[in-house]
Design brief:
17 helices, 6-stranded antiparallel beta sheet, 61% helix, 3 domains, 5-stranded antiparallel beta sheet, alpha+beta, MetI-like fold
């Protein structure tokens, strides 16, 4: 028996089973994490039913509660007794976290309640949930719709009237926002460029009044256009302030909500499955296509998606040629010896350097040194306000390119090492030069390995947060790095990032409970973005691998 055991151990089978078990456990943990994120993230958009109930507090007072159950947990009954509740014969209790909304009235969005003291629970179909641009959701009963302070509809008639007026207010709000962001934003950009142009003339010592007069003429024309947009905005603002709604809260207080602050109003208890499904799709589309609001805890995250993808693309354009050139030199041209071995050791060690160190280096070298010198040489008219001497998407991309450079170098070198020597010798024997052999034979055959390095680089760069906090990412970016103003791609601008958005919402939000579901939803979206980018690179790699497979044999 002992000999059989020793023979079995020497055969290596235990280690195979051990590795298989470790891989299985890792896969189960990864799938479990993804499932948790999927359930919590996708459940964020489903409209929950809103209850109307009575609740007995610890002091014996019975209050009315209106809201939705956000989550539940099991707590020891002793905890409730310590808080003053009179509970006998119970070891454990169910506690709900209820979202009661109306933060501008109650001060808090959530309230902890014990299930045992929650009575007379009903789900009236006329309970309304109002999603606002400020102060979160409001819950209550619709009492009236007003126009310029006068009641125009009450009771059942108010529901239809409210839907039409909210639709009108949303259209007006979008028109105002478009004028502010696009029209007035473009005008402000043009005025700033004219100011810098005039300042540049002053710095150059130009005395001729003609160029100054031309700039002033352009400024006056732009100013007239601005006045037209301002008057148009004033008219729209007056129209959107016209309507309001009045609801009764759970305390019996009448609250008036201007419709210009309302995103949507709905009756979750009256919705069927298809109605909730339609609401779910609209919320999901808003999440991926709209801008954030309420300190990033409401609305969409499109700027963060855009910033993440654009940064990864710029980083890929920078790191791929640098990594390939370095790998080609180390493998094809450099004389193999002690220096090259030390360089390879240094490259491998760089892959293990903490990412925050790269962020500090990027801040010091790229932002302060390189960006500061660029401002002094090419943008003196903007001083003391920095143009490139401040964190931006270009410096973030360069920092992440340095961070992922070792991965691309190592992967490309491995691909070059796998190409048979006979292929190179055959090309040279047919009269091709070394450069032609490298360009037409070696690099195409090594392209799948290059794509492997790029895939690994993208996977790491898209999820990095620590270095970006120093070199360009912000909580809220007023404009995108890509817009309709020349030169269209503004690499000096700051940007939003999905990873930093998760950190900000999850750990810096003043309303953590309200923001928690958004953390899961954003995490799921970040995973999907990384998967899509990787799948695109994998598809290209597989096509290249099939194309050059015959040459390897």
């Amino acid at each position: 028996m002992r000999q059989h055991t020793v023979k079995w151990l020497k055969s290596g089978d235990p280690w195979i089973w051990l590795n298989a078990g470790a891989v299985s456990i890792s896969l189960i943990m990864v799938l479990g994490l993804l499932l948790l994120i999927l359930v919590r993230g996708m459940g964020y958009f489903w409209p929950s039913d809103v209850l109307d109930a009575k609740y007995r507090q610890a002091n014996g007072e019975v209050i009315r509660l209106i809201g939705e159950i956000d989550s539940k947990e099991i707590i020891p009954a002793a905890n409730a007794r310590d808080n003053g509740y009179d509970i006998k014969g119970e070891e454990e209790l169910v506690r709900y976290l209820m979202k009661v909304g109306n933060r501008d009235v109650y001060g808090n969005d959530f309230k902890l309640v014990l299930k045992i003291f929650l009575t007379d629970i009903t789900y009236p179909e006329d309970l309304i949930a109002v999603e606002r641009r400020e102060w979160g959701n409001a819950y209550g009963y619709l009492k009236a719709v007003k126009e310029n302070g006068k009641v125009v509809a009450e009771g059942k008639a108010a529901q239809q009237e409210l839907a039409a007026r909210i639709e009108r207010a949303v259209v007006l709000f979008k028109q105002i926002r478009d004028i502010q962001k696009h029209d007035i934003g473009a005008i402000n950009y043009q005025l700033e460029r004219l100011r810098l142009k005039k300042r540049r003339l002053e710095l150059d010592g130009v005395k001729d009044p003609a160029p100054y007069a031309a700039i002033e003429k352009q400024r006056q024309a732009i100013q007239k256009e601005y006045e037209q947009h301002r008057k148009q905005m004033a008219v729209l603002s007056e129209r959107i302030r016209r309507d309001s709604m009045q609801i009764e809260t759970m305390t019996g207080q009448m609250v008036e909500i201007p419709l210009q602050k309302v995103v949507r109003a709905y009756y979750p208890n009256a919705m069927g499955v298809w109605g909730k499904l339609g609401f779910y799709v609209s919320k999901l589309w808003e999440f991926v296509s709209d801008e954030p609001r309420e300190a990033n805890t409401e609305g969409g995250i499109f700027p963060a998606i855009f910033g993440t993808v654009l940064m990864v693309m710029i980083m890929s354009v920078i790191v791929t040629p640098l990594g390939v050139v370095a790998a080609v030199y180390l493998r094809e041209y450099a004389k193999q010896g002690l220096v090259i071995r030390l360089i390879r050791i240094a490259v491998n060690n760089l892959a293990g350097v903490p990412s925050i160190v790269y962020g500090v280096f990027g801040l010091g070298f790229f932002v302060y040194f390189l960006g500061g010198n660029i401002d002094a040489l090419f943008f003196p008219e903007a001083q003391p306000a920095p143009t490139f001497g401040t964190p931006g998407i270009l410096w973030s991309s360069l920092t992440l390119a340095l961070l992922t450079l070792p991965v691309v170098i190592v992967a490309t070198e491995e691909g070059l090492a796998r190409i048979p020597r006979a292929v190179r010798e055959g090309s040279l024997a047919l009269g091709a030069s070394k450069l032609e052999t490298l360009w037409r034979i070696v690099l195409p055959m090594a392209s799948p390995a290059m794509m492997t390095g790029l895939i690994l680089a993208v996977a790491r760069a898209a999820g990095e947060v620590a270095p970006l906090m120093l070199v360009g990412v912000v909580k809220m970016a007023p404009t995108l790095p890509l817009d309709g103003n020349f030169p269209y791609l503004h690499v000096e601008r700051k940007f939003m990032h999905l990873g930093f958005h998760i950190y900000d919402v999850g750990f810096q939000s003043p309303n953590v409970e309200a923001a928690r579901p958004l953390v899961y939803a954003t995490s799921l979206l970040l995973i999907l973005v990384i998967v899509v980018l990787n799948l695109a690179a994998i598809h290209i790699r597989n096509n290249l691998r099939e194309k050059y497979r015959s040459l390897e044999h």
